[in-house]
Amino acid sequence: MPVEPDVADAVVWLRGAGFGYGDRPVLTDVDLTIRSGEIVAIVGPNGSGKSTLMKGVLGLNERVAGTVTLFGVDSSEFHDRARLGYVPQRHTLSASVRATAEEIVATGRLARIGWLGRLRATDRQIVAKSLDVVGLADRAATEVSTLSGGQQRRVLIARALAGEPDVLIMDEPTAGVDAANQHVLADVLARLVERDVTMVIVTHELGALERLLTRIVVVDGGRIRFDGTPEEYATARDHVHHDHDSHHHDLELDAHPSLAHGPLDVTHPERSRP
Amino acid sequence: MMDLLTVDFMQRALVAALLVGTVAPMVGIFLVQRRLSLIGDGMGHVALAGVAIGLVTGAAPVLTALVAALVAAVVIELLRTRGRTNGDVALAVIFYGGIAGGVVIISKSPDGTPANLMKYLFGSILTTQRTDLYVFAGLALLVAVTTWALRPRLFAVANDEEYARAVGIPVLPLNIVLAVLTATTVVVAMRVVGLLLISALMIVPNAASQLVARSFSSGLRWAIAFGLVSSVGGVALSYPLNTPSGGTIVLLAVGLFVVTAVVTGVMARVGGRRHDVAETHEHEHGLDCGHPAVPHGDHVDYVHDGHLHAAHEGHYDEHGVHHHDDGAHAGISSTTTPTTGTRP
After folding, report:
1. Which of B178, B198, B218 is the last residue in one of the domains?
2. Nearest Cα to Cα of residue B37 among B203, B154, B257
């Protein structure tokens, strides 16, 4: 593996990477570098490959080509997975047996303690603090299935925070969350931004999160189509036709090679909050 | 009751019931959590083949049953991970192959009487030997200690397998450990409740406990309590009633479940009427919502247009009108707005 100078200090470093399941690559030729302190949105319509990209970084699917380096270590030799704070997309939490928010968040701490280690007082404090950061300190003992969708999403963020990760990787944090709770969620993420948490947010709509971002990566048709700052993104967006609905379209990639359609058309007139 | 305790075989039966009543619900809660409630039933089927092999070859049936159940446990877990297609069909083949093989092989053994078959299928605790009891006690202790030590990790994996994998918790080894614990529990409980009823003692106490529990740890405690009452009560009742111990235990567990369901249902109905939910809320109370926080007993209320709002589950409860001196109240009125409020 050729060692480039920027590999070592990058959180995530991909070169020519391809990911998929079995032999079929869903995503190919990905070059992407994410550095500490960045707030990156990975956007794209459903089926674009953005979730595949995220799961590839997390080691949840197969890398079929290229190089993946996490914190300067090749992903096949990377074992300190607790450094990646994963916030999956879940519509329900633990519907099969009852569990409290605190019990769920405590599972995020397990990756940091040994095979038979128990949670010590300091671990419990970190769990409590994580719940506090997402504004759920008063719901620690509440059974999670009785919480609202937005609150459950924040429980999952707290679970990731309990592992004291170096990067938060979030899958559709705002999907299925009503407008009021989206703003609470955006406030929680803003609080994390203030604490210099590096974030990768996979989403099909920027919505309330747009104000937080330092960078936007557009994935469509299994490739990266755009990578730049929100300002560059806004400029690029103005140059394309607004003739597509952003979701549920077939992948028509021929006519417009790069900034063709899809997520670039997502506009949010209400996005600047008072 | 005293005279019941003095009977030698009854003492052994009650000790076995204590062991099984504790261990089975402990393992069972993770099976319920993983939505694998019927897997213990299948392992019981395969264990019967093991018993049959023991009876034919003259080896200890407990040992051969344990080996058969353990092999089945590992194969099942690997099939579930690898087999993308028709995993449950593969399980059905294993389970029914096990019980059919068991029945056929037992018929060829010198002890292959229907009575002997029934003993294993439905339990016959009163015929348990002292040496068997030592083996059961050792295995039960092993299962209890392992389950307790690995409890947080088993919970994490059963709760969210994908997340556990992403953060580096060893998912497959833990799932195999759970399968092995299940198989061992099946064998420990085989003489008490029988191979066809063993799954009931793992699952039914948990079904009841989920009706009353409000957390995973309390769910586990309630399940063990229900399991102990069913198993010890069932054994104690089976003697004077002259009924099979396994069936009596499971009927008692089902009875406990029904009673718990009725009681919690009635209580929820009564409690629901007394429960005053606040108007639909556009925002969430917190440090920076602008609504003054007021300590109220064991929790904090937020003053919202003169009403006290307390967080309850996914909504807010009305905790009455806020009584305060006028100055403070005026201050609140000027900073708070109707629920469609200042936040966008």
Report:
1. B198
2. B203
Please, what is the Cα angle at A168 between A207 and A88, to 5 degrees? 75
Locus of tokens 């009927």: B251
Chain B residue with minimal CA distance to A58? Answer: B166
For the four alpha carbons of B287, B290, B294 and B299, in that order, the dihedral sign comes to: negative
- A221: CATH: 3.40.50.300
pLDDT at B339: 39
Statement to judge: residues B57 and B155 lie in one domain: yes
Partner residue facing A98 (CB), from B34, B216, B311: B216
Q: Are residues B293 and B161 in the same domain?
A: no
Q: Are residues B48 and B176 in the same domain?
A: yes
Helix, strand, coil percentages, rounded to 5, for chain B: 70, 5, 25
CB contact under 8 A, B32 and A96: yes
Mean per-residue pLDDT, A194-209: 87
pLDDT in tens, B270-289: 876 655 666 555 556 665 56
Structural domain for B317, as ranges:
275-344
Q: Quick one: B67 and B157 in the same domain?
A: yes
- Name the minimum distance, in Å, from the CA of A104 to any CA of chain B: 8
pLDDT at B86: 63
Hey, how many other C-beta atoms are within 10 angstroms of the C-beta on B220?
23
- Span B257-272, pLDDT tens digits: 999 999 999 998 887 6
| Nearest neighbour of A81 by CB, restricted to B149, B168, B300 | B168
Say yes or no for a CB contact (<8 Å) between A111 and B283: no
| ipTM for this model | 0.81
Nearest to A274 among B214, B281, B344 (CB): B344
Highest-scoring range by mean pLDDT, B13-22, B88-97, B285-294: B13-22
CA distance B151 to B162: 18
**Averaged pLDDT for residues A33-46:** 90
Is B22 a residue whose pLDDT tops 70? yes
Residue B282 to residue A12: CA distance in whole angstroms: 38
- Establish if B218 belongs to a structural domain: no
pLDDT reading at A66 higher than 80: yes
